[in-house]
Amino acid sequence: MNNEVVLGLVQMGMASDPRTNLRKAAAMVREAAEGGAQVVCLPELFATPYFPQYQLESASDRERVPHDVIPGTITDALSAMARDNGVVLVGGSIYEKAGEHFFNTALVHGKDGSMLGKYRKTHIPHDENFYEQNYFDRGDTGFRVIDTPHGRISPLICFDQWFPEAARACALEGAQILFFPTAIGLSDNIEQWEGDWQQAWENVMRGHAIANSVVVAATNRVGREDSMEFWGGSFVIDAFGKTVARAGRGEEIVLAKIDLEHGRQVREGWGFFRNRRPECYGRLTERR
Question: Which of 41, 121, 170, 202 is catalytic?
Answer without folding.
Answer: 121
